[in-house]
Amino acid sequence: HVFETLCKVNHLVLDKTGTLTQGNIQISDVLVVNASWDKDRCLAVAASIEQYANHPIAKAFKPYFSSQVIASDVKNIIGSGIEGLIDSQLVRVGNASYALAADSGLKERNA
């Protein structure tokens, strides 16, 4: 898909921090939207799911991995993100529209 749409690109923006050239992707901020979870829990849950991801951004979550948080039934959803079960609860990590649509995803998985 990327190569097919590359001919339509008018502008290309690159950062000079090494993110693309050296792969130094880091998490700079966390926005917690569920009052029952704190920042550390969010990062540990995301790290547990992201360990199964097939994209370079997943490496940024490695420092937050905890063997106490176990993901199961993990699925990569190309172009959207990754999802899995943590303590029998569906968790999605990815773009905002995908991650915030967790209720609809649960219905899809159970169909």
Structure overview:
By secondary structure, this protein is of the alpha+beta class. The chain contains 4 helices and 3 strands, in the order ααβββαα. Strands 1-2-3 form a 3-stranded antiparallel beta sheet.
Cα-atom Rg, whole angstroms? 16 Å
Taken as a percent bin, the fraction of beta residues is: 15-25%
The order of strands across the largest sheet is: 1-2-3
Q: Which whole number gives the mean pLDDT?
A: 81
Envelope shape = globular
pLDDT under 50 segments (min length 5)?
104-111
Largest sheet: 3 strands, antiparallel
**Helices and strands: which structural class?**
alpha+beta
Order of helices and strands: HHEEEHH
Figure out the total of helices.
4
How far apart are the first and last residues' alpha carbons, in Å? 28 Å
Helical content (DSSP H or I, runs of 4+): 25-40%
How many runs of DSSP E, i.e. beta strands? 3
What is the fold's blueprint, element by element?
Elements: H1 2-5, H2 39-50, E1 71-77, E2 81-86, E3 89-94, H3 96-99, H4 102-110
Antiparallel strand pairs: 1-2, 2-3
Short description:
This protein is an alpha+beta fold and 111 residues long. It is 26% helix and 17% strand.
Question: Which structural traits does this protein have?
Answer:
single chain, globular, 111 residues, 17% strand, alpha+beta
